[in-house]
Write a structure and sequence with these properties.
By secondary structure, this protein is an alpha/beta fold. The protein has a single domain, classed as 2-enoyl-CoA Hydratase, Chain A, domain 1. Helices cover 48% and strands 16% of the residues. It contains 11 helices and 9 strands. Strand 1 and strand 2 form a beta hairpin. Helix 1 packs parallel to helix 3, helix 3 (74-92) packs parallel to helix 4 and helix 3 (74-92) packs antiparallel against helix 10 (216-232). The longest helix is centred in the first third of the chain and has 19 residues, at 74-92. The radius of gyration is 18 Å and the shape is globular.
């Protein structure tokens, strides 16, 4: 199954994503992922959720080929709504969510990670938003939770990646470890949370969300507005078509 849920230990649940070859999720999968995360947190026996992935990388965002192989705006709308649902599920999950990031985390992956409670990563992990190269916008809201403001702007405008080591330096990534140690590192943190009174941890999650200086849902919705404008103007299709046809950005392909 592409998205699976398992109880790793007493109060620890893992949600694993596996969409070869690069974990670029079709629209329906974003909704499925949201449901899995919320269901895991709703279980009173759960004290912490670990979100992880199999394969080459953690997440490559939305499935652009699916979007370009459909007519009209239905796939775009579903992808945007699905991403919003999955990002919100990580944020709204009743218990802390630890993300274990292997390899690459780009596009929609940043939305998942930026809304997480704890981030651990493999030492070869990179994080980035190629949105401007795809004629789209989004997840600057979440990137801003990972890096300082001016770094976020630089990365966003240039579509460059930031490394796990840099995120450790910025204080957003708890640890960067060899890939073979990634799951165990996530479990080590999860066990420390699981050892606490789950009633208190659930209250702590709600309280911390309540004091957040930015409403991540409203902020992301504003970004999506501009994505829709770019699509209505035909700009986004130009960029996505170029990427699907050549694997390059529009300017690189000229």
């Amino acid at each position: 199954m592409p998205i699976t849920t398992a109880r790793a230990e007493s109060g620890i649940v893992t949600v694993t994503v596996d969409f070869p070859p690069v974990n670029a999720l079709p629209s329906a999968a974003w909704f499925e992922l949201a449901d899995a995360i919320l269901a895991a947190g709703a279980d009173p026996e759960t004290s912490v959720v670990i979100l992880r992935a199999e394969g080459r990388g953690f997440n490559a965002g939305v499935d652009i080929k699916e979007m370009q192989n459909t007519t009209g705006f239905g796939a775009l709308i579903d992808a945007n709504k699905g991403c919003a649902a999955a990002f919100s599920a990580v944020y709204d999950c009743a218990v802390p969510v630890i993300v274990a990031v292997n390899g690459f985390c780009v596009g929609g992956g940043i939305g998942l990670v930026g809304n997480a409670d704890v981030i651990v990563a493999s030492d070869d992990a990179v994080f980035g938003l190629p949105e401007v190269d795809r004629g789209a916008l989004g997840a600057a809201t979440h990137l801003a939770r990972l890096v300082p403001q001016h770094m976020m702007r630089t990365l966003y405008y240039t579509a460059q990646n930031v490394t796990a080591q840099q995120l450790v330096h910025f204080g957003s990534c708890y640890k960067a470890v060899p890939r073979e140690e990634l799951l165990e590192t996530a479990l080590e943190v999860a066990r420390k949370i699981d050892a606490k009174d789950t009633r208190v941890i659930r209250a702590a999650k709600a309280a911390i969300n309540g004091i957040d200086p930015v409403d991540v849902k409203t902020s992301y919705l504003l970004e999506q507005r501009y994505t829709y404008e770019l699509n209505l103007a035909g700009v986004a299709d130009e960029h996505r078509d170029a990427y699907v046809a050549t694997g390059k950005t529009l300017k690189e392909g000229k």
